[in-house]
Specification:
Layout (H helix, E strand, L loop, with lengths): L1 H26 E4 L3 E7 L2 E6 L2 E4 L5 E7 L3 E11 L5 E12 L2 H6 L4 H18 L3 H6 L1 H18 L2 E13 L1 H91 L10 H9 L1 H5 L4 E2 L2 E2 L7 H7 L5 H26 L10 H15 L8 H9 L1
Antiparallel strand pairs: 1-4, 2-3, 2-5, 6-7, 7-8, 9-10
Helix pairs in contact: 3-5, 6-10, 6-11, 6-12
InterPro entries: Band7/mec-2_domain, Band_7, Band_7/SPFH_dom_sf, Stomatin_HflK_fam
Family: Belongs to the band 7/mec-2 family.
Main location: membrane
Length: about 375
Amino acid sequence: MQSAVEGALLLVGALVLLVVIAALLSAIEIVDAYEKRALTVFGEYRKLLEPGINFVPPFVSNTYRFDMRTQTLDVPRQEAITRDNSPVTADAVVYIKVMDAKKAFLQVDNYKKAVSNLAQTTLRAVLGDMELDDTLNKRQEINARIRQELDEPTDEWGIRVESVEVREVNPSKDVQRAMEQQTSAERKRRAMILEAQGERRSAVEKAEGDKQSEIIRAQGEKQSQILEAQGDAISTVLRAKSAESMGERAVIDKGMETLADIGQGESTTFVMPQELTSLVGRYGKHLSGSDVKENGAELESREFDEETRELIGLDDIAEIIGEIDEEAEMDLEAMEQEAQAIKEGKDAGTISDPDAVIEEMDQDFQERTDGGAEPSADDADDSTTN
């Protein structure tokens, strides 16, 4: 009998020990650092359990865990019709954070599901209020509008929407094909425009090059014509100077020959040929040492004006003409000496033959002018006669 009583006592002690251990385990709540827990006793909300070890009434208490970190909610792909009647599909990601665990426990049942469903409806509403091109291009505007629509109801739940990101917005396949055709046509149009602009620029550059080439060619031809004209003018002047000098020398020589014949006579009155008197008047300064005047005025030779001199380049041949004048001056001094000898009655045998003098002058002039025309004695006689 005693053994039976002892066995019963041991059993009761064991049961009490088990109950005490279970009570202790039920009364201790360990809360992690990133969460909070809502405590209810007999179904009544009591408080929020902070991170660490918390003691609660055993066997009659319930706790509900709330993660206080930022959480990610995937919004399933949604179909919507845009304002211009184009079907599109889109999905998004919502980042939320529990700011008030009490509200999240008391104001909403399963706050994650509630936020996800609200984000789906808001996404469809925002897409339906926009044009197709806007849904494809204005991604940031869509995100901002969805977040703004979610802020007000989630604040009442103690939830803060930190960010909303629309991942994809895809139009229907028919719309995609139409957009691809439109893009292809736009690229072809731009390519044709660029090609046309390139051809136009090439044509302009070619025309400009042809224009510059024609201008340069015309300038070259003009310069060539000017140089050729200057060369012809110089040649003409030289020929005229040569002919004039040869004609005057021929007249002077013939006149000196006549003077020689007259000087051999006994008469003291001399009749001078008109050509010789004209030349004596022209070269009076060389023959008599003084300028010859006609009617009280000096005889002046005609000069080229500045434009003509510049055009034919007379200044460039001044040296050649000066040499011709020096030669003529030397010949006139020699003839003056011969004429003086005739007047004084000296022997005329020392006077040179006019034809020889003309031939010598022609040879000297030809050497000085590098290939000038050599007038013959007959030509000199003809010019004297004329």
